[in-house]
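Lab channel / #folding
Pinned by the channel admin:
"Please post every new chain as: sequence first, then the structure tokens as a reply. Keep commentary short and put observations after the output so the thread stays searchable."

First post following the new format, from NK:
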Amino acid sequence: MGWWHLGRWEVRMGEDGMVALAKGQWGQGVGTSKGTVGMDTHVPKAGNVLRTHVSPSLSVPPVAHMFCCPQGQSTEEGLRQVDTLVAQYHHGCLWWGLPWLPVLRLFHPRTTPWVPSADLGVPSPGEGLLLSNGQRWARHRRLLTPAFHGDVLRNYLGIFNQSTRAKWGAAAAAAGGGPVELEVLQPLSLLTLDTLQKCIFSHESHCQEQPSKYIQAILELSSLVVRRQLQPLLHPWWLYSLSSDGRRFARACATVHAFTADVVQRRRRALACLGHQAWLDGHRGRSMDFIDLLLLTKDENGHTLSDEDIAAEADTFMFEGHDTTASGLAWLFYNLASHPEHQERCRQEVQELLAGRDTADIEWEDLSQLPFTTMCIKESLRLHPPVTAVSRRCTEDIPLRDGRVIPKGVICLMSIYGTHHNPDLWPEPEVFNPLRFSPENSKGRSPSSFIPFSAGPRNCIGQSFAMAEMKVAVALTLSRFVLRRDNARPPPRRKPELILRAQDGLWLLLEPLVGVA
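Reply from TO:
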């Protein structure tokens, strides 16, 4: 065990090569290792500054290799390792991605800096909000925000209901009145893809019932991205493009781009032909989809988004939006199946809401009338966050609350999982307890303690969309089925990739409710 001092932080290196960061005293490190490993060991004249020196040639360090395995290992053991680090160090630790690449891993609001920009080395079908930076990101964020306003989202509730009913109608038919065993993540991914394709493109692919070339390309891209992250030699694009996976990635991207470009160009031509007002008049009485909204949006100078910009944002929404929501729903169903008392309370809440109606659809106004169901969704997102960590590279010096500063250029890995499992923030963090999110228990809690959609200026722009979709899906599911654990199978082993999965799938029993058509 060797250790050094970094400002008021004590840096400890364990036998596994992990470097942990804990508060220490001023002084020179002693131990089995000597040297500063490129870090200051003196008190800066300007004050207490957390200072990490990186070679000028490496001032833009790569982060792709950390995105897929943000916890150190992309396994159940890796997440347990994070639990151990959080319990021991509470606020954060220092990890060496490479001998010259320090990464601050943070899991407490006091040390979590929501930096204004970031570079994430994650391959994606387009340079949308996830990957863009600087003025491009700021402009696109401003232009896209109205597309996620409540007045727009309420028009999507019919699609949420329709897609969910299509999924569980088929499941009920397969059950034949008895329980059916189902691995829930894969069908939920198709459900969310079906929903997104309707909301973004107004396209009915019936992907939940039959194969779709476009949907298969999206699913293949997700799989290929995960495989690439686990193969560091293929991180350079020029080398990846020569591999068989790289060629498959290029073909899948071409399929996705061709579909999106065709939709955007056809809509652009129709808009130019009809004119702005005639186009709006033609949409009266029906909602506009995501592509429509982006075609009409203008910045403060009257400039519109280009076809390429619109296609990139649509592809990003499809690529990043389907599996995160599916993961959140799958783990929510698992947690409700594991706690039948909470599941039954949610069901009663839904049944009371729908009692006496001619329709069993969930409406926009209903979403605020499901308080306990909402608490269960939030607690499941805390316990099993779909994205376990996000990487940020500081584009300016970031002052912490205690006066120290994280210098510009340093990579911070905000551990969403670690924050959500921090016992300083969440007593008994492994317990599923929806009442943590009751109004009385939420008083005084830092908003940065619960960050399933990240936080700060680069938080998830689609979080209200995702929460609305999850409420509709769980409400309609519980109104038709009882969710049960399959006790013949062992507990799932968590597997953090681009999203939080289960190593051998999340298997549940869906038992149709008696007397429900």
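NK: The first strand starts at residue 2 and ends at 6.
TO: also worth noting, The first helix runs from residue 64 to 67.
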